[in-house]
Amino acid sequence: MTLQIDSLDVSADETPSGAGEIEKLHEQVVALDADILGAIERRSELVRQLAAKTANGADETGSTFDGLGTDGSVLRRMLARIASVAG
Question: Is residue 76 part of a domain?
Fold first, then answer.
C-alpha cells in the first residue's frame, strides 16, 4: 500500500488570499498614526503658546471634545498632559 502526499510548499509568488489588502490597510493605519501624532505635537505647541499669552495659562479649549462624552474628557486630559510634558 502506498500513500501519495501532495506538496504543501507555497511559492514565494503566491500570497494568501487578502494578504495584499491587509498590507494596504496596515499602511493606511501607519500613515494615519503619523498624521495623528503630528497633529498632537502641533496642538501641544499651540497650547503652550496660548498658555504663555493668557493670564491664567489655562487650556481654554475645554468644550472642543465635549461631543465625545466621557472619551472627550479623557482625550482633553491626555492632550493636556502631553502638552505639559513636552513643554
Answer: yes
Report the pLDDT value the prediction gives residue 32, as an integer from 0 to 100: 95
Would 82 be classed as within a structural domain? yes
HSE value, Cβ hemisphere, 13 Å, CA-based, for 43: 18
Report the distance separating Cα 9 and Cα 31, nearest Å: 34
pLDDT in tens, 73-83: 888 888 888 87
**pLDDT tens sequence across 39-50:** 988 988 888 888
Range of the domain at 57: 33-86
Residue ranges of alpha helices (H) inside the chain are: 19-53, 70-86
Residue 12 within a domain: no
**CB atoms near residue 44 (< 10 Å):** 19
pTM of the model: 0.55
Query: What total number of domains does the chain contain?
Result: 1
Yes or no: say if 75 and 68 are a contact pair by the CB < 8 Å rule: yes
